[in-house]
Every structure is written in structure tokens, then in C-alpha cells.
Amino acid sequence: MTARYFDGRAYPDISLLRVGPSLGFSILALDRPGYGRSCSALPEGQSLREQAEIVFAALDDFGLTHALGSGVFVIGHSYGLKVGIALAAHRRGDGLLGLDGSGAVYRYRPGLQPAPPGAHTQPPSAPAA
Fold first, then answer.
1. Orientation of helix 48-65 relative to helix 79-89, angle to 10°
2. What is the pLDDT, as a whole number, of residue 106?
3. Which end of the chain has less Cβ packing within 10 Å, N or C?
4. Averaged pLDDT score across all residues of the chain
5. What is the C-alpha separation between 33 and 52, in angstroms, rounded?
6. Which helix (H) or strand (E) holds 18?
7. pLDDT tens across 72-107, in order?
8. Rounded to an integer, what distance in angstroms lies between the CA atom of residue 89 and that of residue 121?
């Protein structure tokens, strides 16, 4: 997804990009690496680990010109939450204040939608109970 997800233009009074600064928070909304403006530069996308590296670099750059207060709290939705989890698991993850999000599946079920031609269609094995 792109950063626009967090700017609820239909309801600006609940847009994270508008409410956050009005409450004194610095807000950075990123296009996930491989989406939005970086789509042409990363046509094959990136692994979660690679995305986490880029996001930490973006946070470092953002912190040079914006007050970060007590630190960084990450909010993610869907696959962006998975990137957030990769940030928390990263060697620098203990420096985050926290992580929140929604919309990420617990277990991937490829049979729920048609697979693209040539895609691996065997479901992953279930974890041991």
C-alpha cells in the first residue's frame, strides 16, 4: 500500500496524518518499498528484511529534520503490519516504542483465491499444535 492509506480524506477529522500532528506527534507515512513511487525502482519487490532496512533508513532520515520525542511507534495494516513485525524483530527493533496494526492474516490460505499462472499452489504445512 501507499502512504495515502493513512490519510482518510473522506473523513479528515479522523485522518492519522492530520490528527497526529494536531496532538503534537510527528507522523511519517511511507509507501511500502516496491509500491507507490518506488514501484519502478523495485519491480520485483523486496523481502520483509530488506523492507525493514529501508524503513529504518527512512526513519533515520526523518529524525534528522523532525522531532521524535520519546521515539518511534509503528502502525501497520495488512502486509504493512508484517513489515512492522519485521521492524520489531530487526536488530534495531528494541529501540521502537511499540507496534500496532490490523489486517494481517495468521495463516495464509492460498486456496481462498485463484493462484496466478505458474505460482506455487501447495499450501504450507500446518504448525504443530
1. 80
2. 72
3. C
4. 85
5. 9
6. helix 16-22
7. 999 998 889 999 999 999 999 999 999 999 988 777
8. 28
**Residue 74 has which C-alpha cell?**
509503528
Residue 105, C-alpha cell as written in the block: 492474516
CA 42/CA 15 separation, integer angstroms: 28
CA angle 27, 96, 49 (to 5 degrees): 95
CA distance 69 to 25: 8
CA dist 101 → 50, 66, 79, 119 (Å) = 20, 23, 10, 28
> Given this model, what pLDDT does residue 29 score?
93
Which region holds residue 114: left if phi is over 0, alpha if psi is between -120 and 50, else beta? beta
Cα–chain center distance at 115: 24
Q: How far is Cα 129 from Cα 121, in angstroms, rounded to an integer?
A: 23
Dist CA 110 CA 32 (whole Å): 22
Single-letter amino acid, residue 29:
A
Question: The whole model's pTM is what?
Answer: 0.76
At 81, which amino acid appears? L
